[in-house]
Amino acid sequence: MRITVLFAAVVMMVAAVSSSFAQVQAVPGLKIGYINSAEILEKYSCAKDAEARLKGDVDKWEMEAKTRANELQSLQDQLEKQSMLLTMERKKELSDSLQKKYAQYQEYGQKKQTEAMDRRAELFKPVQDSINKIIQKVGLDEKYDIIFDAINGSVVYALPKYDATKSIIDLLPPCSVTKGTSGKADGKKDAGSSKKK
Hints:
197 residues; disordered N terminus; 69% helix; mainly alpha; single chain; disordered C terminus
């Protein structure tokens, strides 16, 4: 009995594998390519120009930050050296001034960090748009099905027939909302729970 069941299982597996193999043979091969986005950015003159412009802006901001840091250090040194000679009032003045400058320094650093990210996005958007346009052209002209970026593994080009987004959305189950106790207490109903009459 066990031998018969085992034999039947093996026959079914062989049939399934043969069927899958036949289907793969019938489908034309995918043409898959990849790019190295880091190398493209490294060699593309517009990307180099954008990087140089960004560096110029960041260098200016860093010089200003260094000046502010030096002012802070100078004020700190003054407070430490003259601490014994200063009145309590003067110590408090210098200490308050130091704290205020330190807060301004931190705020400046955070602001410039955000500005640097925004400036990078602004400078590199046309570069990225240009690269993406060429990727799409190469994908179509050279009849690729899919092109990946080897640096981050993302798909940078794919034929629309491989987009499974709609299928996934269509199969998503409805969201079940957890009812709060306040809804029961005041007699409110969920919008989806009212039945049509």
